[in-house]
Amino acid sequence: MRRWFLNYNSQDLGLIASLEAGLRRKDPDARIFFAPKNLRAGGLWLPELAREIAEATAFGLLVGEKGIGPWQAMEYYEALDRRVKQHDFPVVLVLLDGQPAPGLPFLRQLHWVITSDPASERSLVQVMDATAGGGAPLPEELWRHTAPYRGLQAMTESDAEFFFGRVRETAEVIAALAEAPDKLAILFGNSGVGKSSLAQAGVIAALMRQAWPETAETSGPWPRAFTASRGDARRRAARLSASHRRSRPAC
Fold first, then answer.
1. Minimal CA–CA distance to 89: which of 134, 131, 139, 27?
2. Helix or strand or coil: residue 181?
3. Element (H, E) at 112
4. DSSP classification of residue 250
5. What gap in Å lies between CA 230 and CA 86, rounded to an integer?
6. Count of CB atoms within 10 A of residue 211's CB?
7. Which residues, at least 6 apart from 245, have a Cβ–Cβ distance to it below 8 Å?
8. Which three-class secondary structure state does DSSP give residue 199?
9. Cα radius of gyration rounded to whole Å, the chain
10. What are the backbone angles phi and psi of residue 4, rounded to the nearest 5°?
11. Would the N or C end of the chain have less CB density within 10 A of its end CB?
12. How confident is the model at residue 100 (pLDDT cuts 50, 70, 90)?
């Protein structure tokens, strides 16, 4: 039996609801985890989300008009971590046609379904074929589906795929943090030079991936001080969000 985990921005609830209904019609024997129907009010939703991703046989990432949400990114990292360990675990991006793709790391390596109607028969067939190892092609020109230039807007870890020109600085900051993990590191510079982008799309994204930037000129292993950096980053984000919300937050 197929077990789906649907990852979505709660501001695109109508879009994901139509996709969920279409999957139930197309794959009636499957178990579909859809938070509004499966999460209990007042329950401990963080462990349940982690358990559902661990038990899923397919992970669907929907990106609609509202873009990627912070909890979508966290769930994506969890699914990506599983895919690294289990290469046949399908992670499928369903991108609403005309919308920019999220700057999530390693997105190019996944199957994509680009569609104006995620619940259409053609789109549903593509999604299901992708979970079987075929059907949805890999994007060859990612830039056609995104706006990589953010102007003065700071990039976050979800924009890491489009963060260029700061590989050396990112590696230097990580190395400095690893050398003195018990000390406070300060990143300073003139306003607008990209400190926030370096910290978020560079350093934090690397800690979430638990790996050096792909083109970094370093032959050393990932620092021992950060052997659990992926989990530490998730836990910090979870504690921060849990302190502000009592129900499942917007993804």
1. 131
2. coil
3. strand 111-115
4. P
5. 17
6. 16
7. none
8. helix
9. 19
10. -95, 145
11. N
12. confident
Q: Does residue 91 contact residue 61 with C-beta atoms inside 8 Å?
A: yes
- Residue 31 near residue 6 (C-beta atoms within 8 A): no
- Read off the tokens for 135: 């059907």
pLDDT per position as a tens digit, 110-168: 888 989 999 998 899 889 888 876 555 555 555 555 555 666 777 877 677 677 788 88
250 confidence band (pLDDT: 50, 70, 90): very low
Side chain identity at residue 195, one-letter code = K
- The torsion angles phi and psi of 94, rounded to 5 degrees, stand at -110, 105
Read off the DSSP letter of residue 201. Answer: I
CB 41 within 8 A of CB 90: no
* Structure-token pair, residue 227: 């052997």
Rounded Cα distance, 212 and 177, in Å = 13
Q: Which helix (H) or strand (E) holds 96?
A: strand 91-96
Pull the structure tokens for residue 121.
Answer: 């028969």
Instruction: Give the global pTM.
Output: 0.59
Helix (H, G, I), strand (E, B) or coil at 5: strand
